[in-house]
Amino acid sequence: MGYLLALPTAVFGFFVRLGWVRGIGMLVGAGFAGVLTISLLVNLVGWTQSPPEPSVEHEFHREAKALKLQSDGPFGTFDRQQLQRGFQVYKEVCAGCHSLNLVSFRDLHQLGYNEAEVKAIANQWAIEVPSVNPDTGEAATRKAIPSDRFPSPYANETAARAANNNALPPDLSLMAKAREGGAAYIYSLLTGYANAATYRNEKGEALPAANRPGTGLHFNPYFANLNIAMPPPITADGQVTYADGTPSTVDQMSKDVSAFLLWTAEPNLQGRHKSGWAVLVFLIIATVFGYLSYRNIWAEAKRQVAPKGVLDPANVEKRRRASRKAGVTE
Predict the structure, then answer these.
(1) Where are the domains of the chain?
(2) What is the C-alpha to C-alpha distance for residues 74 and 183, in angstroms, rounded to an integer?
(3) At what angle do helices 20-49 and 2-18 cross, to 10 degrees?
(4) Which pTM was predicted?
(5) 299: burial class by Cβ within 10 Å (0-12, 13-18, 19+)?
(6) Is residue 99 a contact partner of residue 105, using CB atoms and an 8 Å limit?
(7) Cβ(132)–Cβ(140) under 8 Å?
(8) Which member of 21, 53, 194, 243 has the greatest number of CB atoms within 10 A?
(9) Over the chain, what HEC string results?
(10) Inter-residue contact 132 to 139 (CB < 8 Å)
(11) What is the CA radius of gyration of the chain?
(12) Residue among 261, 258, 181 at smallest CA distance from 224
């Protein structure tokens, strides 16, 4: 019986010494920690005994293909000719469904177009800019001017979904930053459409019938859930005729529009590269001058160490007196 009363008595004494509020708080905290620990151990054992099975999307999804662009790396710069070709592909292939809401016509100056060319591109753009009739106050449209942003091909989201089997074409302004892989993802997506019936993954397995695209969907292993509503936009060589005479193969057009969309997402890429190198050079020079200044100012200064502990003169004297009293010779 004494053993049964010992534990409650000890706990009671502990709370009395520690304080009731603080003691109860610690007890509750220990209870929560114990519950969390038990839950973690149970889940860990369950995961070890029955690991989750990989999904079909995980088994058949492919990472983006390698894409080499002139803008890659810390010294990268944009290839203006390629950007102009990519803009042409966007204009003739992509602009019918996808908007560039964050890009203005006047930004095309960075691609090498002069002022007259930019004005002509804006004025001849197939989609007019929403406006208001000043005489009647009713909704109207007008020709674009360089200060306008690229107009959306649809009046609103409802109209966009109605025209695309309830799928919403995303804005492409920041697409190269919004998707893992950037421009390489866009290039892979454009060139990665495949026949779901004959497709095989890296293990040689066929795509299950339940995961094959339904009506209005298209199989693409580079898309997150494998089935995408957008049909292949670039389907044949020569779909776009380049003004500079570059052969317009499917691969080339996909690379060019991917480079263009990288520019729309990172228009200041070259400036950031230049600024980064300037800052790096400045920091190196500042570090060198800082070290030389240190050597010049402190080279002759002697380091002074404050005596502490056994080196303290007072402690040294105490030790000597104790030694003499004990008859010990230092």
Answers:
(1) 2-52, 65-192+240-271
(2) 16
(3) 110
(4) 0.75
(5) exposed
(6) no
(7) yes
(8) 194
(9) CHHHHHHHHHHHHHHHHHCHHHHHHHHHHHHHHHHHHHHHHHHHHHHHHCCCCCCHHHHHCCCCCCCCCCCCCCCCCCCHHHHHHHHHHHHHHHCCCCCCCCCEHHHHHHHCCCHHHHHHHHHCCCCCEEEECCCCCCEEEECCCCCCECCCCCCCHHHHHHHCCCCCCCCCCCHHHHCCCCHHHHHHHHHCCCCCCCCECCCCCECCHHHCCCCCCEECCCCCCCEECCCCCCCCCCCCCCCCCCCCCHHHHHHHHHHHHHHHHCCCHHHHHHHHHHHHHHHHHHHHHHHHHHHHHHCCCCCCCCCCHHHCHHHHHHHHHHHHHCCCCC
(10) yes
(11) 36
(12) 181
Instruction: Look at the block and give the residue holding tokens 């009046």.
Output: 155
Q: Consecutive sets of 10 residues in the chain, 330 residues long: mean pLDDT of each?
A: 60 60 72 89 82 83 94 93 97 96 96 96 94 84 94 94 93 95 96 94 90 92 94 95 94 97 95 92 95 80 64 78 75
**Burial (CB count <10 Å: 0-12, 13-18, 19+), residue 260:** buried
> 187 and 255 in contact (C-beta within 8 Å)?
yes
Which amino acid, one-letter code, is at 150? F
How many Cα atoms are found within 13 Å in the side-chain-facing hemisphere of 177?
9
